[in-house]
Amino acid sequence: MDIDVSTIPLTPIATVVAALITALIAYINLTLSKEQKTSEFRQAWIDGLRNDLAAFFSSARALCRTMQEARSPHASDEDVRGFRFSKEQVGKMRFDGAESLYRIKLRLNQNEPAHMELNRLLDSATTIQNQINIEKGQDYSKAIEAIERASSYSQTILKSEWERVKRGERAFRVTKNWLMPIIMIISLVFISTLIFNSTETNKSMQPTADASAD
Known about the structure:
Blueprint lengths: L9 H61 L7 H5 L4 H21 L5 H22 L6 H27 L2 H44 L1
């Protein structure tokens, strides 16, 4: 059974399709706006974590070197004394390091394995350093190695989070890869149907117009 497309009432269909397309476009705009805000927050989180990590690692290393030089057999040498930090400076480094450490811990997500591993490495570095301090040891090489392991591993997290920012959130990827193409297809099909129907209507009206002229 052939269907005469020209007899189909397109006005209500056009209204429904236009409303659907409008709703989808509004959803896309909302998703894009939310994605932009989420990316901004995530980028701020990355920048904050990087700054806190740098502050912690620099303070931890400086404290290791300071204590190592202070307990060195050559602690009284002039060149060693010239590079020694004052008690106020050491106290500030200890405070800055502790503050940075806990800011890092508060930023980490304990449900993500990579974050849990970084937290473990940070705890390991501080534990080794504190143990050497308690024992009044002179060799801080193990503490420095632990700090470097944590520093190296933290770079993988920063890179992973940056890749997530570039990749976008899941809702954004679905909108970009699926919803937008669907809207384009629906729009093209609808426009093609309107053009076809308009052409068929003009053809059907042409003989009537010719007959009236005769």
